[in-house]
Amino acid sequence: MQTPVALRFGVFAVPTTGFREVTASGAITGAGIFSLDDSGVGPARFIVEYDRGNNGRRRIDLTIEVVLSGPAVLTQGGVTVRLSRYQTDLPGYGLVQAGQVLRIEIPNCVTRVCSRSFNLGGRLDVDRSFGGGLVEIPIPVDAVVVSTR
Amino acid sequence: MLALALALILAASPAAADDGTAANAIGNASAGIIQPITVEVIEDLQFGTLAVGPDTGGTMTVDPASGTTSYSGGLVGVCGTGGCQAHPAVFGVTGEPGRRYRVDAPTSAVAQPVTGNGPSLPVSDLRIAIASLPGPDPVGRLDAAGKDRFLLGGTLQVTAGSAPGFYRADVSVVVTYD
Asked: Which of B10, B27, B29 shows the shortest C-beta gap to A50?
């Protein structure tokens, strides 16, 4: 299993208003900001993992639905950030809306644990009136198995 | 930056793998947002009032670290107590507390006559002195209030017989987070 990571926008200065966008592939764009260091900037990595609960080797074709929560807004001191424009590297789900159902197929699962990973990018809009700091925005994710054939 | 380990684990019961098994998790998006760095001129670099002989030019140096002045050749300072004393330029820097910053400045400039018909006067050996991080590198560190200062000095070269006048050189200084 790969080590999952957070969606990292890096460290940057914002005079008043700006945004930074990190795509699922790690491309970085932005406006109104001054980046200090792009190292470590990158998309989040999620792993959807299914454990059949036994060591049976019967083939299972899994369908799992994943839903990302609504865009989050966070105010911290004189800084307000808003997370939006979720984007993934899942086929057919390049740009996804909050609340949209992502259908993930895991075919031919013949081991106890089968998994599927995907990258998640997004856009962070920042309004700064004073100060700064490290901001962390939660991204609640729900997943449900809809088919195990 | 914080890294987050996240896995949505959909575990079926040991007996059967049922549809409808659900899981949830909370990922994170993180960013370090800092205030922009700014620089302002508090005092200009001042070479004072000078006199040069008709046959011998000279130089005058303002040391940025100590503020002392030195002369060579036929150049002398003739400033009295009227506020025309030579001194380094002083710049104020404001930004994110505790962060390092770097100063980029040219090493030379050319002073042009603002009044009179004198020649251009070279200004060389422009140097930066930063009290917060003394050393050869033009790097400083903002204090707990997000402030710091640095000084700029240099050497003015005056050719013999230069016409009286007021001379001025513009020097662009850029400050960035290191």
From this structure: B10
